[in-house]
Amino acid sequence: MTRIALEPYFLHQDQVQSLLGEHRTESARARAARRSDPEAALPYVLAAEFAQALSSLGIGELARRVLERDLRAGQVVGTELQFEFQRDRDRDAPGFKPASFTAVLDAGEPMRVTGTFNAARIASSSASGSLAGNRRVYLIGTVTNLSAEQVELRPVFIGIRSFVDDDLPAVASAPRARVYPSDIGQFSGIDFASPFAEAEGEAVLRVPEDTVKRAFAELLGEPYVPKDWGGERSDLYTSRVFARGRQLSAAWLFKGPGFPRAMDVKALGKNGDQIDRLFTEPAELLVLQHCHQIKSSVVGMMDAYAHDARHPRFYMIIDGADTGRILRSLGLLPAAPARPPL
């Protein structure tokens, strides 16, 4: 079983305890009291209790809330972004060390994520260096101000989010949320590091989406290939994927030559709702395939949905180049059309 672990750089104890409630708070305080230094241990024990409670508290990912148009003031959300931190030392006072942060969330349209916090509440003295300059961290905060271009958050937690698989040996690392095509057992005979020519990329654009879907289904050993229809949540559902040594259920979304260019969030339906529908499938692995480049904003959306504390999952991206390598291995990549003589 995979669970979330939180390591705090900053933790607002009052707000965390309010979110946890009396019973969970007392449990955490009792565990901290048994440590050699209860005061120093309390932020870390509270963070551990907070991590266990995330799914029941309904704390969703900021990117998902934005994409679903379900973001409002007062909500508590989480987001993992590249933040720029700044300290305003001129305003320092006893017990008060103001700091600010800013980042950009790309959910189809860029949105600035901003806020301030009291750096005196850092979890330990060594954490101050982790909240300076540009850092990629996980932040949980309350929405205090909101517009179409900007969201302001009051931080509850800033630190590291990791995923721990209790079924793995203690020395093993937790599995990444992102699965790569080379992780799939049925793709083991494909060289994903092989060169991919521009002409092959053009050839991928000439392969119909249904042909690609059926080719993938055959390679996976999935005999049941549904016909396309307007209300579908995915194009292919299978329980026959083998990844990282285990069998997984997977839902696949295929985007063919009907969109023959780099994919952004806007290419995935109104407000990117095709991603939202894909993640409503009861699958452990969600797969997005496209016949061309897939932009980082789309990868970020898939990553945000996969890391949602309410229902964490795995995801995979297969762009035009990897699609071409798979089709080439099956002998399904069309030959380049002959050039007319000069």
TrEMBL record:
Highest taxon of the lineage: Bacteria
Protein name: Uncharacterized protein
Annotated source species: Micromonospora matsumotoense
